[in-house]
Structure formats: C-alpha cells, structure tokens
Amino acid sequence: MAPKRFFVEEIADEVVLSAQESRHAKNVLRLSEGDEVILFDGSGKEYSAVVTRADRQGITAHVVRENASDREPKTDVFLLVGALKGDKTELVVQKATELGVTRIGVFSSRFCSAYMNENKLERLRRVAREAAKQCLRASVPQVEYFDTLEEALAAGKTYDAKLFACEFLPADGRGIADTGGSVVAVVGSEGGFSEEEYELAETLGYAGVSLGRRILRAETAAIALLAVIMYEAGELR
Ligand code: SAH
Questions:
Q1: Using one digit for the tens of pLDDT, what is the confidence trace for 53-92?
Q2: How far is the CA of 188 from the centre of ligand 1 (A)?
Q3: What's the CA-to-centroid distance between 86 and ligand 1, angstroms?
Q4: Which CATH architecture has domain 76-232?
C-alpha cells in the first residue's frame, strides 16, 4: 500500500503531526512505529519519513529524504472568483486545486450577495490543503480575499494572459488558446458582472471571454474555464 500523506505546517528532521492528523493516523489508518509516511508542507516539496513514536501524545515522524514531486502543473494559473453562496466557494476551491491552480482569489463585487470573513477564509484554506493531499499535489494553492473587484483585478496584473469570463458577451466561437505563459482567469458570482465591471477589466488589460451560448452557474463556469485552460496548457493529457 502506498504510504499515507500528511500535511505539516513546517518541515524539520523530526515532525510531530497536528492533533487532528495524529488522531486520524492512529485511529483510522492504524499507523504505528516503523511505518513509512509522506509529509508535505504545501511548498511543492514532499518528504519520506518514518514514524518513530505513536502514542497518546500524537505521532512523531523522522524525515529520511526529500522527494521531487512531478505532479505540479508547468503553467501558473490564478483563479479569481466572486464569493459564492452556501458552500459553493468551497466546491470551487476544491476543484480548482485538483485542476492544478497555484493561486485562488475570492472577491466581492457589485452583484455579489455572499460575504467572507476570517473563519470562512480559513475554511477555504483547509479545503485547499485537503484537496492537495487527496490529489497528491505537493503544493497547496494560496487562497486570498479581495474586498473589491478592482483589487482582485490588480492582483492579476503580472500574468501573461488575463481572461475575464463574461456572461453577456456573444459566443463568437473564438475559444481560449494556450499562450504558453501564466494565466489569470476571472469568474463572477451568482449575480454576474455589470457593464462597468467589464469595462474596468478591459481597461486593466483583461480579455472578455464567452463560455458559450448557455449561462452557466458560477461554479460550473469556474470549473469549466479552468479545465479548458489546463487542457490547452497540456495538463489534462
Ligand atoms: N446572473 C447572471 C449570470 C451569472 S453566471 C445572469 O443572470 O446573467 C456567473 C458567472 O459565470 C458570470 O459572471 C461569468 O463569469 C460566468 N459565466 C456563466 N456563463 C457564462 C458564459 N456563457 N460565458 C462567459 N461567462 C459565463
């Protein structure tokens, strides 16, 4: 059986797993002394380690070597998505992580009716860590919050390609081609975008893109757009 993977805040020669990870490791996975595990700290590296202690205090593991991860995408993709209602933003963070994004920004905008707070942001970061662990990624996407669309768009300034999925643009059959460089992709919340917001994005160098003749739900749009970008970048084959 492949060694189990654990997220740790900081890597060291000797690592103590968090209370939550330790409980899971002992009670569910039945790990004991001598078992091999994989540790990752979200930075893109992962480590083989051996359990040296498994008792009531938790699980301690000793790192034996660093492994290169070959699961990271070669293309740097930044998803900007409007804050969504209920647990929809969590769904988007989970799927975006699986699809290989390196950064996720959640923003508030004119027609956005969901709100964010520190707790919700922390939960999104946990979702990203869990998703990275499950899909065997060694790096965890950074998750940020922007109070306004303007700030969010500004954060995407340095990306080579800037895409703005806009529901009121005509489907012109142009599609989304790979540019060979980094990409920032913007998707609105349930309420969509206003004309002014689209104009602002255009002024900042974003290209409006259509996702076809049907209006997709925000979470569908985000996942579909990322899948197309990753496919064009050669990541899904
Ligand atoms: N409330 C809006 C729809 C918003 S859909 C309305 O009734 O028209 C949520 C977001 O998904 C949009 O802001 C856009 O970013 C994306 N989206 C959905 N369908 C799309 C399409 N056909 N083309 C481009 N973007 C789309």
A1: 999 889 999 999 999 888 889 999 999 999 999 999 999 9
A2: 7
A3: 18
A4: 3-Layer(aba) Sandwich (3.40)
